[in-house]
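To whoever is on call:

I kicked off a structure prediction for a single chain this morning and the downstream step that reads the tokens threw a length-mismatch warning. I double-checked the sequence; it's 362 residues and nothing unusual in it as far as I can see. Pasting both halves so you can look.
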Amino acid sequence: MNKLNQVIRVVFFLQILFSVNSARADISDSIECREALVNNVAYTIPYQTAISCDRGVGSVTYSGDLTNYGEFTVAPGFNLVLEGGIENYGTLNIYYELQFRGNAAVITNRASGIVNSPEWLFVHSGKFDNYGTVNFAPIHGDAALGDNLLAINGAFNNFGTCRFDDSIGSAGGAGAFKNQGKFEITSRGNFPKEDYQESFNYVQTKGEIEVNGFFRAKSVNISGGRLSGNGTLKIDSGTASIVGSKGVISPGAPIGTLTISKADLILGGSLDIELSGPQNNDKLNVDGSLNLSNTYLNVLLRPGFLPPIGTQFTIANATHITGQFLVPVLPKLPFGACWLINYTDTAVMLETSGGGNSSCID
């Protein structure tokens, strides 16, 4: 695979109309792609990596392989279609449109790599393997908020960090986002936007998904790792599975309410709850049914907080709750005090009580 050792900026303006004939030329790093297109020649990035151009405004189909140690920019007004592969050790900026087509279309973002995508990214087929950092964020702060678009028909495999800090549309797709690293929806992250009906499948075997904004998926299956945050997770299929001893739900970041919307939650693994004060605790809110039959409960007190006797904490809400926690792990209270777990059809509450109550959990 060839190496691109310095910055190549793809610069093109929408007002330039061009056609491409069968001529082909190699161009030096100092010649911008715009000049090659104006002269009606296809071009090859140095070290013999092939680029071919389709008819259209600012559209290039790239069928070679590219290794980037520098900075590669898909500039505003430019559409880059990948039929080959990119191995990125440097910085890849997607300032307009990047598409992956064909099973050979693969981008591998290495541990040192950074991909900034404030615009449109389409994984039609092939795959995107991320071991570094991928940022879905606007170019110019809030000014460009909401311009992003992501579609996955192939595979998006995250082993590094993937951060959504934008209101992002989705063209949907039959593919899946598979996470084994850190997947974060920030407080202003909104993916996909409510006016977009399409979404994709989310699968996690380890790592963490932190939802502090809004995230919607066709289905969610977390067999390992952690789900945390103060935001909303909406599931189109109506069922979410957090199964196995390695799956953890930990509402809050660090304290707060995590909402799972329009879904029946089958919860295995454990629910981790922190208590910081009266009316200030983690809570799981489910807009659907909640099954706790195979779930462990782990409760921690934040440093400096010791709840007085008679304090109640609602730690879970749902339209309907079935089952009870397996073995609750609760913090120690002063001598003469104990914990109660109260279950209703729609809520689970912790309460501190005085000694002598037969329902006490030491």
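Update from on-call: the warning came from a stale cache, not from the record. Cleared it. Sanity check on the structure: The radius of gyration is 25 Å.
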